[in-house]
Amino acid sequence: MDNIAILIPTFNRHSFLIRQFDWLNQIGVEEVFALDGSEKRLECPEIFSKWYHHLPNMPYIERLKYGIDKVKQSMAVLCADDDYLYPEGLKNAVSFLEKNADYSVSYGQYFLVFPYKNRYGIKQLYGCNRSFGIHDNDHTNRLSVWMRDYMHSFYAPRQSDRMRAIIKSLPSNQETDEKKLGDSEAANLVELAFAITDAWFGKRMVSISDIYMVRQAVERNSVILGPDAVEEQYPQQFCSWIDEYCKKFSEYANTDYSTFRLFWSNGWREYRDYFIPKYIKKTSKNKQKINILKSFKKIIFRSIKRTIKKIFPKDSQAKRVLLLFPGIKEIVDHMNNYTNTLVDNGKVNFF
Description:
Blueprint: E1 4-10, H1 14-26, E2 31-36, E3 52-54, H2 60-70, E4 75-78, E5 83-85, H3 87-99, E6 103-116, E7 119-124, H4 139-148, E8 158-159, H5 160-169, H6 183-201, E9 203-216, H7 233-237, H8 239-252, H9 257-288, H10 292-311, H11 317-324, H12 327-336, E10 349-350
Parallel strand pairs: 1-2, 1-4, 2-3, 6-9, 7-10
Antiparallel strand pairs: 4-8, 5-9, 6-7
Helix pairs in contact: 2-5, 4-6, 4-9, 5-6, 5-8, 6-9, 8-9
């Protein structure tokens, strides 16, 4: 994988970073930039020292800028420290982009591995059991589809020049008139900037036959804008950040500011008016289930379901996923070599 650069923003999670280094080395990645904002420096093996960049207390956005300035490869990928990029899916996505310049991003299936005691389950993320390809030549139409049925493209591979244009346009806290943004708030807006600008650059391809990334379920700040985003004060609160991004991107990409700013506003409106209400409706339904009668019914239903499973046993969801995507087992085996990052003791098994 000599044409791909991996950027890993990380903070106070050295055990995950060491595991990530080992995996990327195993699958043959050559250019990696681990952007660590922790105060304490990671003492990593010498073989990985060239990948490690200690940037104590540097804000999230500034770390991304530091990393993208050093990228030399034609393709770049952002990756979380606890995510596993699957080599075949990554190669296929990059190969597709190299052959199809009118596509801005390409990726495959995302899976989540979640631990429970000494076992784990696997499920698909982001509704990837169906195609999320967007093939419209008109960028306004692309944007509408992209934001209404939102699926973020933050961790997808893209041309390095395009990623550089997005990241270098991201405003730092000092460049905005509003209150300073924390890492989680900045991550929310950065993700949205990637999605909207990706729709501006080109089409999207999602292959449902490829494993692209496997994510471990750990406690983290969500980078998907939550229900508060539907409130009117949200876009007003961060309007200076958005304005600054649109100005800098327009200069960097040599495009008209007013056209791109309108494009962003349309993307925000689609996201706010169509996706967010669906998100709120889904979460509010989950909250409504929490009452005594429904909880009792749920317990009874689960007991009946367990009894039926004992009488008529069948493969678990995790095992069914592994039959379709056996490559996930390779990743889980690697997780087992770093057991303490997944479970407290012993190797993990399937539900």
